[in-house]
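Both lines are quoted verbatim for reference:

——
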Amino acid sequence: MKRFHVHVRVADLAASIEFYNRLFGAQPARREGDYAKWMLEDPRINFAISTRGDGIGVDHLGFQTDDASELAELRARADSADMAVLEQSEVSCCYAKSDKHWVTDPQGIAWEHFHSLGNVPVYGDGGRASAEGACCAPGAVSVALPTPVAKAACC
């Protein structure tokens, strides 16, 4: 079963953790000095925040799979849609080792499809994670944050 993934860049990690703890009614499953992650079951989501990268807001979206066959299914869908796909195998990122691939939607939003292989003690892969890409998002699929707009009265 797949789990929806959202990664948000925040300015104040402690304040954001306090907010999301109350919003979700749960504590993070993992917490580091620059990162926190909630693995919620209802709704089924992997929600991560970090202070890595430039700016604040949504860094990327994605799907976490429970096994390699689900990841292969997502890869086949991306291939059938003629999307440019960036493959990464056994990469360490966001305190986890994963097999993954990245695609970018027509608006430039990065989508990460990944299967976690285990935890690691560092944020990135041997220092490859950098300020321009939180959670190791490659430059080709990094998210350009839009200029904030005035809030409308409703959706």
The chain is about 15% helix and 40% strand. Confidence is low (pLDDT under 50) at residues 126-134, 140-152.
